[in-house]
Write a structure and sequence with these properties.
The protein is mainly beta. Helix content is 9%, strand content 46%. It has three helices and 29 strands. It has a 29-stranded parallel beta sheet that branches. The longest helix has 13 residues. The relative contact order is 0.07. One of its GO terms (molecular function) is polygalacturonase activity. Belongs to the glycosyl hydrolase 28 family. Keywords: Cell wall, Cell wall biogenesis/degradation, Glycosidase, Hydrolase, Secreted, Signal. One of its GO terms (biological process) is cell wall organization.
């Protein structure tokens, strides 16, 4: 009885208005995701095919309402259900897939076709909860998105409207896939090409798994973060390839217990915590591990960045381990003066307990370790353990290969190249 009571309490805490579906079993969800890719889900799962609801696989007819009707039918079915997007090319404007759903187990979205976004920005009014995104999943407990299909954002036609390089209060362009208030979810196998904004955005969600996903955009595409998350807990990303124009993975305020393993990043801006200190009353960031990943010709390797504002928060319990850098511009960087030329006060974000373990490869700049911390909140507990980076930049640069530290309390262990800060 005690165990049952605990399960019920967890359900009451985690479920956003829906019924309890039991504790999330990641191994079982992965098995279902693999089966869903081939449609091998068994006779007990009812399939809801977008073709049966009027969607046209011709790449020309807008099928937004047909996709929404298919989702609503699957979501409201009082049994196990799978929404099917078959092979073919489907054109779609912004759509909100909103729960809670009535399914007793995880709702499956099988994606084996190509879903293309409307390129005209006039469509993007009312698609997501904040009127900016393309495909939004909201308030769903138990979700699988799996298949061999592709989401094509047609971002190249609108990237010219992005003015974030000139304006700090710019309006971001639509994310391809947004998940908000989604619990117990798995994304597997899909591909995202040329998003208008972020490839995948996760907010106010819990217990997320992302496996074997392929995210692609040109290295100069603006603000096309691969996976961007905020106010989310227990997110695991693995065996994924991210080549894009901004952060491969970005974790801002309220990101906790995040695991990133076996990810190939590049081109892009690397793995970033932040920017932090951007908003008032930001939730802390903690429990981040980036392990067994490789970065190829990225602007940054592993980065923590904060604004010079008076918004206080904490970033702690961070591990960067077993990483391979190939001609990375800034392999190890903490920047607590990020994008703040107009502000004079030091950052109020406290950074502590950060471990860099077994980082090796090549740096495209002479300063391979750059720790620029806050004057009023010096970085505490920074550990560099076996860092082996070699210079691979322009041969005519006479500067020494070095580290730069300011307001950082650093402990060194094992081999160090570049040499430690004085």
């Amino acid at each position: 009885m005690a165990a049952f009571a605990i399960v019920m309490m967890v359900c009451l805490v985690l479920i956003h208005g829906g019924q309890c579906k039991g504790l999330f079993n990641a191994a079982e969800a992965l098995h279902k995701a693999k089966d869903a890719e081939n449609g091998d889900v068994g006779p007990d799962v009812k399939a809801f095919n977008v073709l049966d609801y009027g969607a046209k696989p011709d790449g020309k007819t807008d099928s937004s309402i047909n996709f929404r009707r298919t989702f609503e039918a699957a979501c409201n079915f009082h049994g196990d259900a799978m929404m099917v997007i078959p092979e073919g090319e489907f054109l779609m404007g912004p759509v909100l897939f909103s729960g809670p759903c009535s399914n007793p187990s995880l709702l499956i979205i099988q994606v084996n076709g190509i879903v293309k976004a409307q390129s005209n920005m006039a469509y993007y009014r009312g698609g997501g909860d904040d009127d900016t995104d393309w495909i939004t999943f909201q308030a769903i407990d138990g979700l699988i998105v799996s298949g061999r299909g592709t989401f094509h954002g047609q971002g190249s036609q609108v990237w010219g409207f992005n003015d974030c390089a000139r304006k700090s209060n710019c309006v971001r362009l639509p994310a391809t896939l947004k998940f908000i208030k989604v619990t117990d979810a798995m994304i597997r196998g899909i591909k995202s090409i040329d998003p208008k904004g972020f490839h995948i955005m996760i907010s106010m969600s819990r217990n997320f798994r992302i496996f074997s996903v392929d995210l692609q955009a040109p290295g100069d595409s603006p603000n096309t973060d691969g996976i961007h998350m905020s106010k989310s807990d227990l997110v695991k990303i693995s065996k994924t390839v991210i080549a894009t124009g901004d952060d491969c993975v970005s974790m801002i305020h309220g990101s906790t217990n995040i695991s990133i393993k076996k990810v190939i990043c590049g081109p892009g801006h690397g793995f970033s915590i932040g920017s932090l200190g951007h908003y008032d009353d930001e939730a802390d960031v903690s429990g981040i591990i980036v392990k067994n990943c490789s970065l190829r010709e990225t602007d940054n390797g592993v980065r923590i960045k904060t604004y010079k504002t008076d918004s206080p928060s904490k970033a702690s319990g961070i591990i960067f381990q077993d990483l391979i850098m190939t001609r990375v511009q800034n392999p190890i960087i903490i920047d607590q003066e990020y994008g703040n030329t107009k502000y004079s006060q030091p950052s109020k974000v406290r950074i502590s307990d950060v471990h860099y373990i077994n980082i090796r490869g090549t740096s495209a700049s002479k300063v391979a370790v750059d720790l620029l911390c806050s004057a009023s909140n010096p970085c505490q507990g920074i550990h560099l353990d076996n860092v082996n980076l070699q210079y691979a930049g322009p041969p005519n640069d006479d500067m020494p290969f070095s580290s730069n530290c300011r307001n950082a309390r650093v402990a060194y262990h094992g081999y160090q190249s570049p040499p430690p800060c004085r």
